[in-house]
User: Fold this.
Amino acid sequence: MCLGFPGKIIELDEFGAIVDIGGTKRDVSTMMLPDEVVVGDWVMVHAGMAIAKMDEEEAEKTLQVLRELADELD
Assistant:
């Protein structure tokens, strides 16, 4: 099983981006994305790679579920 996290692109360069994942900023590669992305787009991040573009609504729902899961584990 793999786990990916939705993040919003806040900076972009030729081969990578800085992505905000629930308030944490990460450098990720965008080289695996088949579609062009721009600052403000949401992507699914797995193992340091942006692997898919997402819509904002689905990204927010996914982040909420992950937050609820983390709260239950505490």
